[in-house]
Amino acid sequence: AQSVTQPDARVTVSEGASLQLRCKYSYFGTPYLFWYVQYPRQGLQLLLKYYPGDPVVQGVNGFEAEFSKSNSSFHLRKASVHWSDWAVYFCAVSFDSNYQLIWGSGTKLIIKP
Amino acid sequence: ETAVFQTPNYHVTQVGNEVSFNCKQTLGHDTMYWYKQDSKKLLKIMFSYNNKQLIVNETVPRRFSPQSSDKAHLNLRIKSVEPEDSAVYLCASSLRTYEQYFGPGTRLTVL
Questions:
Q1: Chain A partners of B45 at a C-beta cutoff of 8 Å?
Q2: Chain B residue nearest residue A31, CA to CA
Q3: Residue A44 is part of a domain; what is its CATH number?
Q4: Which domain holds residue A15?
Q5: Number of domains observed in the structure of chain A
Q6: Which residues, 6+ apart, have CB-to-CB distance to A47 below 8 Å?
Q7: Which of A6, A45, A76, B13 has CA atoms 20 to 30 A from the CA of A88?
Q8: Structure confidence by residue, pLDDT tens digits, B93-105
Q9: Are B4 and A42 in contact (CB < 8 Å)?
Q10: B101 CB near a chain A CB, below 8 Å?
């Protein structure tokens, strides 16, 4: 069955340090992939998206992600985190002609001063 | 301003009451969604709807129903709320693509 896994429920990073949030999916074809961010008491905002093409995609606020078909992964990266990045990050995948998204369980990013 | 709007922000009610949540999008999208987000932040799709098709997640209890007057509005009605309905309800929309845009959510507390 198609699925999305975010293996880390919480990630703690020092301000200014680099970041990687992991996302793995299960599917035999080429999916469409997304990262969303949810700040406290807000809805979800699209950070970046992958449609088949260049495997490295750039998003807002210095975020980027890399698609790897061999690893079935779409990890999110940032070179230097800021305290304002404290939020929950969701990976989502779609393989469906009805545009349904399958969601990961989210990773809470905590920033240490 | 173009966005997805939800009202109310918060709602507190008692078991057995009926509630309705409103969602409006001004993005010109043709598909709208309702999600339930539990206390652990897990997202569950409840409904997706465009002017041709309603897709219902088969795990959604029958007391939940979507109501749409046009493609810019998709409300959510809960006929008789239960304690497990306490959650944040998120509305989203899209335009024939996989990118969904979300409203701020409605937080429901059932006493």
A1: 100-101
A2: B98
A3: 2.60.40.10
A4: 3-112
A5: 1
A6: A34, A35, A36, A37, A59, A60, A61, A63, A76, A89
A7: B13
A8: 998 777 899 999 9
A9: no
A10: yes
Closest residue in B to A46 (Cα) is: B101
DSSP A32-86: EEEEEEE-TTS-EEEEEEE-SS-SEEE-GGGEEEEEETTTTEEEEEESS--GGG-
Three-state DSSP class for residue A22: coil
**Mutation to test the A interface, candidates B25, B96, B98, most A Cβ within 10 Å:** B98
- Decide if B48 and A90 are in contact by the 8 Å CB cutoff: no
pLDDT value for A94: 85
**Calpha distance B69→B74 (Å, rounded):** 7
Residue B1 is predicted with a pLDDT of 65
Which chain B residue lies closest to A91 (C-alpha atoms)? B43
Q: What is the pLDDT of residues A86-99, one digit of tens each?
A: 999 999 998 766 67
Cα-to-chain-centroid distance, residue A68 = 13
Q: Which residue has the higher pLDDT, B69 or B36?
A: B36
The average pLDDT across A15-39 equals: 92
Distance linking the first and last C-alpha atoms of chain B: 35
Q: pLDDT band for position B88 (50/70/90)?
A: very high
Residue A16 CB neighbours (<10 A): 13
B42 interfaces chain A, CB cutoff of 8 Å? yes
| pLDDT the model gives residue B8 | 96
